[in-house]
Design goal:
By secondary structure, this protein is an alpha+beta fold. Helix content is 33%, strand content 23%. It holds the Pfam family Peptidase_M24.
Amino acid sequence: MPDRPHADLVALRARRGDRLATLLRELDLDHVLLSGADHIRYATDYRTQLVSEAFDWYAAIVDADGEAEVFVPYVEDELPRPDEGLPHVRAVHPLPSWAPAACHPRQWLTAVGGVLARRGARRVGYEGLDVVLRDGLAERGLLLRPVGRELFQMREIKDEIEVELLAATCRANEAALRRAVETAGAGMSDHDLLAVAAHDQHAAGVEFLTHGVCNVRKSSGGWFADGARLREGEPFFLDIGCYGRGGYASDLCRTGFVGDVPDAVRHAYACLLEAHLAGQDSARPGVRASAVHEAINACLHGHRLPHTPYATGHGVGLRICELPTIYRRDRMDEDAVIRAGQVLAIEPETTVEVNGLPLVLKVEDNFLVEPSGLRPLSATAPALS
């Protein structure tokens, strides 16, 4: 990345290991069996994801001392101590290539169950296991406990090094998004705009692109590019994300405009930015997540505009969408309290109708929650000149 941070990843790894060890002690577990690329990265710093569908191709076993063994789909034999930079990763073990446990459950059970047995595991936390693998391990006498939610909760409060890495990814992602919006012109397609953004994200040296969507004259939820071309006088929006150094993410969105837009669009966009600010002002330590959601939508309703039809925010970390969820109280298991140290995306959306055509407007930025309120990690959405 152009301003690639010189973060102390060894220190970060140690701090994350301490958190995981504390969680294992609290839950009375001797090992955890991980399958998500983000949880594996957090616990081991081993980078697993190769393609977007690879979320169930890998596994890792980690104990309270941070000693880990990883299972991957691209080796033929066990590789002891595969990376001198990751001395806590004892070995990499082979799994069936490019396939989840559901496709080859016996192979997975033999590989994973064998290592757990050799390590003397008895009480094992797990997240995201295929049911056949889970039941097979239980039949071998392991006491298994689901810990997916606890792992996400553990990751909510970010270390200062994590914040540094998240901010760097935001800068790269925001620069790519800004250039794509500034490049837009009548006749260009949604694919053209996403290509500009993706080029700049890759040129900045990010690890992986998480998503790239562009709404051109589609209703809410119609975010996917299909060759639609930009027209003079109309808005569009781009929502893009990526993982930067260390796997830390950024999730941003901008509404752009082609030429002079109608007054109704200008007014709606100004109201959207006002709602965005209302969300930022309300997202303070001690405030419930639903109160932030309500503040955003109350502002939109006050301007007689449609409310955001989904969560107006979420945490950001080793996933673009983590806890807390900022949504309706009745659509969440827990109406979490906003806490200092969280990194949040705030993303209001609304719709304005022009000549019978609904036009969707959206903005999204990332923020660090500090004791006094939010600090932007991305340059926040600009007003329409």
